[in-house]
Amino acid sequence: MRAFANQGNRARRPRVVIVGGGFGGLYAAKGLKGAPVAITLLDRNNHHLFQPLLYQVATAGLSPEQIAAPIRSILSRQQNAEVVMAEVVGVDTQRQRVLTDRGEIPYDILVLATGSRHSYFGHEEWERFAPGLKEITDAMDVRQRILTAFEMAEVEESAEARERWLTFVLVGGGPTGVEMAGQIAEMARFTLVRDFRHIDSRSARIVLVEAGPRILPSFHPELSAAATRFLAHNGVEVRTGVKVTHIDQEGVVLETSLPATHGQGEERIYSHTVIWSAGNRASPAARWVGAPTDRMGRAKVAPDLSVPGHPEIFIIGDAAYFEQDGKPLPAVAPTAIQMGTYVAKVIRARVEGRPQPPTFRYFDKGDLATVGRHFAVFCRERGGGFPRVRLKGFIAWALWLSVHIYFLIGFANRLLVMLNWARAYFTYGRGARLIIRGVVCGQHRPSEEESAPVCR
Amino acid sequence: MRAFANQGNRARRPRVVIVGGGFGGLYAAKGLKGAPVAITLLDRNNHHLFQPLLYQVATAGLSPEQIAAPIRSILSRQQNAEVVMAEVVGVDTQRQRVLTDRGEIPYDILVLATGSRHSYFGHEEWERFAPGLKEITDAMDVRQRILTAFEMAEVEESAEARERWLTFVLVGGGPTGVEMAGQIAEMARFTLVRDFRHIDSRSARIVLVEAGPRILPSFHPELSAAATRFLAHNGVEVRTGVKVTHIDQEGVVLETSLPATHGQGEERIYSHTVIWSAGNRASPAARWVGAPTDRMGRAKVAPDLSVPGHPEIFIIGDAAYFEQDGKPLPAVAPTAIQMGTYVAKVIRARVEGRPQPPTFRYFDKGDLATVGRHFAVFCRERGGGFPRVRLKGFIAWALWLSVHIYFLIGFANRLLVMLNWARAYFTYGRGARLIIRGVVCGQHRPSEEESAPVCR
C-alpha cells in the first residue's frame, strides 16, 4: 500500500495514525496541525458527517451533501496530514500496525475514534425491519421508507393495510427518537398535506416508544414532561414504560412493564415503518487492542484516554468509556470533540518532549435537544463556575438553531443549510423529498408484486 | 389498486393517464390544469428530474435534491391530477388499461412520455463498465466512480495502476460527453488539487472519444472547433473519428476509422472510469401499443402526436419520432416540453368538443451546451422570423447559466442552486463530493481485496 511506502520518507517524524474521521478523529487531526508528526487519518468513508443533523436527512429536510464534507478537503491545507479511505479490520499491537482492507499501516501513536453502531440487545435480526441512524446510508434508507410508506398508503385499497402504512413507530425516547417523531409529525401535518388525493396525511399515527419512565432521560424530568406535552399536542403518541419485545415486518410487539399505566400484557402495533434509536454498541476498537470494556463494548480508558498498558494507543469518542465525578460521560459530539482536542495536546507534548497536560476533564456545555417547530429543551446542571440553566420552548429552539449552524462543519455549507431551513420554515416544504430507486439496499417493502433488492 | 377504485367516482370525467413525470409528462399534466378530466400521472420515481443538469450531480457540483422535486408537490395544487408511483409494464389497448406493477389503470386518453435509456448498440454487457446518465442513480454511480478513482490512485503503489485510476474516458462527443469532460478536467485541475499527498490530480488523463468527425455534431462546425480548442486547452484529449469496439474492466479498445488522423488499427486505453454518452434507445412505449418505430425504437407518431390507428393514445418526448421539414426533432427537453403542452391542448379541445388545434410544430429556440468555466456554445439557425445566431465563450456561458437557473423546476431550488454554483465558482469547490458506501449498487471496483456489492 502506497501510504506506507511514502510514510517511510518522513520516517524521522513519529507516525500518528488516526482511525475514524468523525468528531473525535477530526479534532485530533486538526489539533496536531503544525506538530512534528506524520498523520494518517483512516476512514472507510470519504466524508466527515455532522451526525447531530442526520435525522434531518432521514426526514427529507436536508440533503446528505449539506451535512457532510470530504475529510480530504477539511484537511487539505494541513501539510502533516494525509487521508486514506480504507476499512480497518484490526490492530497488531506487537508490530504496531493497523490492519486494513488495503494493507497494513505502521504507527508510533494510534488514536482510535471509531464510534458506535446500534445495538439491538441481541436481536440483530430486528435491524432489517427497524434501521437506526448512524451513517448517511442509514438516513437515506429511513427517508425512503418514510416517503414510500405514504406512497403505498395512497394506492392501498384496504383501510387496514392503509393504516399500517400510515403508522410510524420510533423505538427509543432519546434525542434521536424525539427529533424523528417531531419531524415525521410535522411532515404528516404540514408538508405532505396537499400532496395526496386518497389519504389524509394528517391521519398518520406516530408512536414514540420508550422503555424507561420518561423520554429524554438525560434531561431534567420537568423538561421531559414539557417535551411529552409538546409531542402529544402535535399528534405523537408517547408511550413510556413500554418495552419492545419483538419486531418483524408486520410491526412491533410491546410489553407493558409498568402495569399502572397501560395494563399488563402484550400489544401489537402494526406498522411497516419502524425506526430504531434505542441502543448503541461501541465499534470493536477495544477488542482490536485488548482493552477492558464496559457492557456496551466501550474501552475503559486511562485518565489520559490511553489504553491501560499501551500508552501509545488512545481511544476516544463513542468508542471510549470514561467516568468523571462518578458518572460516565455522555456519548455526544462535544465529548468526542473535547477528547480529540485533548489527545492532540497529549501527543504534541509527548513528541516535543514537554510534560504531558493534566488528565482529561470534560467540560459540560449543556444538553440540547430539539423536539419540533419552535420547541427545544436545554439543560445544564450547576458546575464549572456556571449556574444551573434549564430552558424549554422557543428560546431553547433558537439556541439549538444557532449552535448547530455554527458548528456545522463544511463551513460554506452553513449558508446553504440556513437557507434550506429558512425555506422549510416558511413553506413547511422539504426540498429533499426524493425516493431514489435502487439506491437504498436492504430496503424492506413487503409488497406482493415485487421483492426488494438486498445488497447488504 | 386504489387509484382505480377511486377513479370510478369521477367516472363522468374522461380519464387521462400520463405515463412518465419527465418534461413531456409534466407539461402535459400542467397543460390540463382546470380541464374537465381526471388525470393520473404514473412514474416509477417520485420525482421529476431536471435532466439537463444531471452531469452536475455526477461531477459532485450539485446534490440530487437540488435538481429534482417530488412530482406530487409540483402538482399538489392541481385538483384534477393525482400522482401514482408505479412501474408500467404494458398497455392493453383493447380494454384501454395501463398495466403496472401495482395493478391495472383504465384510461380514456393515454399519454406515453416514457423517455429513453442508453443504447450500447447491442453490447449491453458494456453498461456495467461504462454507465450512462439518465436517472439520479446513474449520476450517483458515476460520481462514486470518479471520486473513488482518485482515492484508489492515492493509495496505489504501482505507477501503472495509478495511471489507470487517473484515466477517464468519455464515450460520445455530444453535449453530455463534452460537459462531463469539461467538469472532470476542472475537478482534476482545481477542486482536488490540494487534497491528495501522493498524486497530483492535475496529472489525470481525460479522453473524449467521438466516432464522428467532430464533437457537438448538432452545432455548427465552427462551434465544434471552438469547443475542441477549449477542451484541449484545459487538458482534455479530444479524439474524433475514433470508434469504441470493446469495453471491459481494463478500459476501452478504440478503432481508428479515419486512417488519416491517427493511423489505422486498434488502440487500448487503460482506464477504470469509462462513462457512456454515445447512444440512446427509446423506452418500450411504442412496443406496448404496437406503434411503428424508427431504428432507435421511437414511435413514429401522427402530426397530432397520436399513434396511427389509436387517436386516444399520444406518444411524446424522447419516446417519439417526429419529422419536421424533413428532419427529425432533437431529443432534448424543449421538444418534450412543447409536445407535452401541445398534447394538453389537443386533449382539452377534444373533451370540450372544440376543434382540434393545428398539427404540432416545434419551435426551435436554439441549441446550447456548456463546455466549461466561462465557455459555452449556442447556435440557432435562421427560421421562425429570427436571424441566425452563433455564440461561443463567455456570452453563451452567461446565457446557459440564466436559462438553466430560470427553467430549473422545483422553483425554490433556484436560489440554492445559484448559491451553490456561486460558491463553486469562487472557490472551485464541490460541496457534493461524497462517496456513499453501499448506496450505489452495481458499482464496479476491480480491487483485489474486496468485491463490490451488486444489486441490480
TrEMBL record, chains A, B:
Protein name: NADH:ubiquinone reductase (non-electrogenic)
Gene3D superfamilies referenced in this protein's UniProt entry, alphabetically: 3.50.50.100
Organism annotation: Chthonomonas calidirosea (strain DSM 23976 / ICMP 18418 / T49)
Residue ranges of every copy of the FAD/NAD(P)-binding domain listed in the record: 15-340
Superkingdom to which the source organism belongs: Bacteria
Membrane-spanning ranges: 394-416
Keyword ATP-binding: no
Lineage: Bacteria, Bacillati, Armatimonadota, Chthonomonadia, Chthonomonadales
Similarity comment text for this entry: Belongs to the NADH dehydrogenase family.
Keywords: FAD, Flavoprotein, Membrane, NAD, Oxidoreductase, Transmembrane, Transmembrane helix
MF terms (GO), sorted A to Z: NADH dehydrogenase (quinone) (non-electrogenic) activity
